[in-house]
Design goal:
The chain is of the alpha/beta class. It has 16 helices and 15 strands. Helix 2 links the parallel strand 2 and strand 3. The two termini are 18 Å apart.
Length: 410
């Protein structure tokens, strides 16, 4: 049996104080390591969450399946986040972070999303621990994390100062110095979530070698997982439907998809999620009853929507680092129609679990094929599920992670 290790995951966001898939992925990895006998401490920053979140804070979970969770908070959320964003260093929470990450407490410190919990300055904390960095986004090479230039187009070369102004964010002057590269020297291994994301880091000048390790989902619960949807639960919607899951932002690409359902009377579009572009998308739908906004749905409840969908549509117009929605759909034996962009062609090539599109015509054709040809859809669904089991399940990916850790520690 492998000797148990003491892991620490410093990260800006962690459920329920979180917005996207990076926090959920961090939680899955933490729980998987605990299940294998390791000790995991997660440090997350409530200041950052409170700065970016409107409305009341979520209730803190009573327990997190054996994971030790430490939430840090300064009492001056906006100031703390602004100072870290501007200086690239821990500021109001620096002393507390130094105490927690004190030399000798942890064997491995895996930075997940350090942007506002401490910035690049946090990468040197931890004394003699082995340090890893997991790139859930493109923050190492992009101030806005997403390589979406001027908040309107894919980024193919740097215009970072003007771009941050378009995002209404103060420019990070430390990015024009050697500070980030100096701090990277404290990291023993870097992990990208896909070959595409690794190559995109290299394209934008990232100077260190990156390993590739994808996101993953829990192993199949039981044989029921591969049963037909009808044998598991009744459909959550009366008519045939395609499903979108994700944050409602312009970069997620729904602006192209919603209008097409005026040309496609045979199925509805169900949209699970919320975000700052929700109002604009509702206006775009213009009262079309075929477009149904479900709001945020817990993952356990979301499974039923995946299982009964004709397909899940993943239309992001930005460079994602992976595609967690794709493998969530695969786990429920539902094929995917994804934009031919970023890591999606890589995932679809590995799985044969659906189709790719660029144009409206290609998207409509893929929708029609999967809805009108049950044998074809079943072929894609079976391939999707097999790929999830063989490539993106916990028992496959976590040993790869532990191998990276072992090599970094030698």
């Amino acid at each position: 049996m492998t000797t148990p290790l003491r892991f620490c995951f410093p990260t800006t966001f962690y459920p329920p104080y979180s917005f996207g898939g990076d926090a959920v992925g961090t939680q899955r990895l933490a729980r998987a390591l605990v299940n294998r006998g390791h000790h995991v401490t997660v440090i997350h920053d409530i200041d950052a969450y409170n700065t970016l979140h409107d409305g009341p804070a979520p209730p803190a979970p009573v327990r997190d399946d054996g994971v030790e969770v430490i939430a840090i908070e300064s009492g001056a959320a906006r100031l703390s986040s602004l100072l870290t964003q501007q200086t690239g260093r821990p500021t109001l929470n620096a002393r507390k972070l130094g105490e927690i990450l004190g030399d000798g407490r942890f064997d491995v410190i895996n930075f997940q999303n350090p942007s506002l919990v401490g910035g690049p300055g946090l990468l040197s904390y931890g004394g003699g621990a082995t340090r890893l960095y997991m790139a859930h986004d493109h923050w190492l090479v992009c101030p806005t994390h997403v390589l979406w230039r001027h908040n309107r187009e894919l980024c193919d070369h740097r215009e970072c100062f003007r771009c941050q102004v378009h995002y209404r964010r103060p420019p990070q002057l430390w990015r024009w110095t050697s500070y980030l590269n100096d701090q990277l020297r404290h990291i023993h291994a870097f992990i990208a979530m896909s070959e595409f994301s690794r190559d995109k880091h290299y394209e934008f000048g990232f100077p260190r070698v990156m390993e590739v390790m994808p996101n993953f989902l829990p192993d199949p619960d039981s044989p029921a997982t591969i049963a037909t949807p009808e044998a598991i639960s009744p459909p959550p919607h009366a008519r045939p439907y395609f499903l979108f899951v994700g944050r409602l932002e312009k970069i997620k690409g729904l602006d192209q998809v919603i209008p097409l359902f005026r040309q496609y009377p045979d199925a509805d579009l169900l949209i699970a999620g919320d975000g700052n572009h929700a109002g604009g998308l509702r206006s775009l739908a213009g009262g079309n009853e075929q477009v149904v906004f479900l709001g945020r749905i817990p993952l356990e409840d979301l499974k039923r929507y995946y299982r009964h969908a004709v397909a899940t549509i993943v239309p992001s117009v930005c460079y994602e680092t992976f595609g967690i929605i794709i493998i969530e759909s695969f786990k429920e034996r539902t094929p995917v129609i994804a934009r031919r962009l970023g890591p999606f062609p890589e995932i679809m090539r590995q799985s044969d679990g659906g189709e790719l599109f660029e144009t409206d015509v290609e998207l409509l054709s893929a929708m029609r094929r999967l809805q009108t040809d049950p044998a074809y859809r079943e072929e894609k669904a079976s391939s999707a599920y097999r790929a999830y089991v063989d490539l993106w399940s916990e028992s496959v990916v976590v040993p790869r992670y532990l191998d990276i850790v072992a090599r970094a520690r030698t």
